[in-house]
Model the fold of this input.
Amino acid sequence: MFKRGDTFVGQLIVSHSGTNGSPIIYDSYGTGALPILSGSDVSQGTADPLSAIDILDQEYLEFHNLHIENERFDADPDPDAAPGADPNVDNDKSFGILIHSNKTLPASNNFEDETLSKYFRFSNLHFENIYALSIDGVEFNKVRTTGIYFDDAFANDVIVEDCYFTDLQRTGVWLKRYVSDAVIRNNKFIDLGGSGAIISTSKRVLYEHNIMRFSGSESDPRMAKRGSGMWVYNTDDVVAQYNLSQHARGGNDSSGMHVDFGNSNILFQYNYSEDSAGGFCETLGDNNNVIWRYNISVNDGTIDKGGKDILLWVSDYAGNRKIKSDNVYIYNNTIYQGKDYKNVVGNSKISLEAVSLNFSNNIIYLESNARLGEKEYTANIGTPFFNKNIIYGGTIKAEFKNLDATKIEQDPLFLVPGTRHSSGYKLQTNSPALGAALSFTEPIFPLAGIGIFKDITSKATKDIYGNPVNLLSSTNIGAYNGTGETYIPIVNTYEAESGDIVSGREINCSNGSNGKAVNVDNEGDALIINNISVPSTDVYLMKVFYANPNKSNLKVTVNSGETETIILPYSDGYCYGGGNPTSFHFIKTLNSGNNTIKLEQGIIDKIEVVSINDATLSNVSEKFLDKTEAYLEKTVIASSESIKLNINKELASKKVEVSIYNINGALLRKENFNTNNISIEAYSLGTGFKIFTAKIGGYLLSLIHISEPTRRRGI
Done:
């Protein structure tokens, strides 16, 4: 146990394993900020370790409620370096937690034929400030710096959840080699030099409900400056669902998420991707059975920061070889292309190379001045199967449109096109997409319903919004399968200059609303907008129009509550330089009647409050409840007892969602409660090891483990 508020400098070497049912747990105690475990703190001539926490061939371990850093300054020479060899070969690496093994790949080349280390749990960990001594001159693909790094790990049964990763040289979580049955969920990867997560040379991974913003960042000059939000390489059986990726940057890849080469059985569904430099559905070569379904893409593809700008992207690239992928399925997705955050209209490429490609029931919607495939177009498909796509607006390459003899060239009638949030891409009741999709037999995800994929269905049974789906019968084109929206969102506009300006100033903004804006960019400045009236306590879409010329932090406080910092992409210039305000969209809960919103650190033009029915995939990072605010009263119980959840914190929403998982991370039960006293009878859960989480409004209770006592029924 590490005391909150304290800092511990040096390397924690995990030299013992726990056992099945009795893991070794590393956690915090006391009150205040998470304890900081840092491999190094200053340049002082003392060798800095490769990782803050080192795990070599150990198992049954848990890590909770810790802040982990490893900013390396001084070399840690290898004492076993051969004569004449460079003893400082690891100076271009740094890790928060390093999990590795002395085991070697067996003759079968199947790592699961070796004895695997089992059971690793990581929850409510904060990773920040992890940098190598230098990566100057190091090829991008050889930059290894990572928050949690599994290197030749020979590991099984891994869960990484509710963790926060920011200000890292490259990657948040990297399953580099030899990991199986891993669940990565409910994490936030914000402002990283590379990707949020990389899954490579592993088996059976579930990646869900993660937020990835500003992967490939260059906010620190030491960053790698390139990366998709998440990608998979040389791996079998992966499901990525309900993830949100925004503002991926860098050359080559840098898509919202992408499938690299050498994979099989990959399912990407129910994800929202926006403003990535690469594009949508990036799938490289030598893959088999890759499925993209019920995803939403908004303004993906840009040349910013060297972006590839390939909106529709299936490649034959497989390292040093050209091998087309087979059985690629892209169906029932919604793709929108308009203006980016710099107010530049989309002009993206198309590159499609595959043995077989099924591209059906998708909506492609371009604003009037946008272009697709005109700048560059490749279509080299052995067996193309293009059917019932809506292809509408802008200027779209004729050869691409002609691949689909059954295409529909009509306005799909989105609820609020151009919205930088999934809620705008539902369909109105008179949309030509309703009931017009092609009925067909879907591809199979072989492990659906098994192990960590217990709740995954091989065929789509719902859309991204939760509406039921059956593609063997009448369904809609696109990612929405509801009956159509009759509800028209109410939009209320509040001019910045009408608010209370604290220390800032009103400025002229020729292209802004009413020709005015408010500058509260300096420390201590604030804009307070009162009397924001809404009819009922609910979730609302907030659209902040701003004119910040650089990537910046906006502080938002609603009704004197907790202040949240949101990173904004840069716009196309200052107001006085002729720039045009752009907008960032996020979700907030407002109370019935009047509300107050305080904005700090920005040049604000106006805000719009939009009443969105059933908003989903919120852009807002979730907050964590401290154990002093909510806790489970029992951890080991008899079958006659109950598990009681106590909530001490006053929250805007009293609705509590309790989820119960088995040891493999499979969801066993989910139940909603509307009371502060929640009890679940132990006998109803059966015997064995269980994992509990509780979601309370926008808050998450840290993971609690409950094990079976000796010679007792229940858990």
